[in-house]
Amino acid sequence: MNAAAARHNNAAPIMEVRDLNLWYGDGTHALKDVCFDLYPREVLAFIGPSGCGKSTALKVLNRMHDGGRDVRIEGTVLMQGHDIHAPDVDPPLHRRRFGWVAQKPNPFPASIWENVAYGPRIHGLTRDRDEMAALVEDCLRRAHLWDEVKDHLHDIDGTDLSGGQQQRLCIARALSTQPDVLLMDEPTGSIDPIATAAVEDLVLEMKHHLSIVLVTHSMMQARRVADRVAYFHLGELREIGPTEMIFAAAQDPEARAFIAGQLG
Ligand code: ADP
Fold it and tell me: Which end of the chain is more exposed for a tag (fewer CB within 10 A), N or C?
């Protein structure tokens, strides 16, 4: 194991991103020579001003840009040592290894049960209804939603829940395909402070089982939940390191200014 690999939890990285460049069809050079590792059981927060490439970098990891018009990607992204863009990688199977939680809760207009059961069903992850019931319960429990919805799994739609409950349902749905990595794009950007605290508690619990990459505009949130922080600026990943180190003594002048609230 090299020194870099020893940096978190004494584990080798689950993902390695090297010299990543991405251009959108209109010529926007959204990612410039981006390099970082993602370790098992860590929360890595992407911070930086708007439009600096944080969401774009998140989407590269699960190949969400596939099919995007004229998106061009150069560089290497390895998952457990394997190139995610290699011809033998099946994009839907690759994507199944990731959960995605968006800024605005986006449950399906279907029952709570269906929201969680849909992914495992289409991927054939359970053998019968008992197994599915156990999986649905487990995901809802892990998302701290079970007690609130257990008597209404089939007769209330996900879209009828409160905003905070909807986001926890979306987290349960993201967990239902048993991902290795959870990608969260400003997951508390449109919910109230109490619901935000609930989601942050969940992040801290979930990281015991998977890796989490979190885009956040909230410096307080990054401090509360992230093990490491990556600062993006105009498409460059300027600095990455342990959260307390970046907040106390970032080397990059723009990162320091951003953290101090003087930029972005
Ligand atoms: P952030 O998440 O840091 O706010 P983004 O990754 O969303 O930044 O955007 C990075 C840059 O790429 C911005 O200049 C943005 O306007 C541009 N961009 C994002 N999505 C697209 C798209 N689908 N087509 C063209 N340009 C895009």
Answer: N
79: nearest Cα among 21, 13, 33, 9:
13
Question: Taking the CA of residue 239 as centre, how many other CA atoms within 13 Å lie in the half-sphere pointing to its CB?
Answer: 18
State the burial class of residue 200 (Cβ atoms within 10 Å of its Cβ: 0-12, 13-18, 19+).
buried
Residue count of the chain? 264
By most ligand atoms within 8 Å of CB, the mutation choice from 21, 24, 70 for ligand 1 is: 24
Provide the 8-state DSSP code for 145.
-
Ligand 1 centroid distance, CA of 215 (Å): 13
CA distance 19 to 37: 12
Domains along the sequence of the chain with CATH: 1-95+229-264 (3.40.50)
pLDDT < 70: residue spans in the chain = 1-9
Token pair of 100 as six digits: 């995605």
65-90 pLDDT tens trace? 998 789 999 999 999 999 999 999 99
Span from the CA of 49 to the centroid of ligand 1 (angstroms): 12
User: Could you tell me the distance, in angstroms and rounded to a whole number, from the CA of residue 52 to the centre of ligand 1?
Assistant: 7
Chain centre to alpha carbon of residue 95: 12
Instruction: Compute the half-sphere exposure of residue 2: CA atoms within 13 Å on the CB side of its CA.
Output: 3
In eight-state DSSP terms, residue 111 is B
Residue 36 neighbours by CB under 8 Å, 6+ apart: 17, 44, 230, 237, 240
Question: How far is the C-alpha of 203 from the C-alpha of 224, rounded, in Å?
Answer: 10
Q: What is the pLDDT of residue 1?
A: 36
What gap in Å lies between CA 192 and CA 194, rounded to an integer? Answer: 6
Helix (H, G, I), strand (E, B) or coil at 152: helix
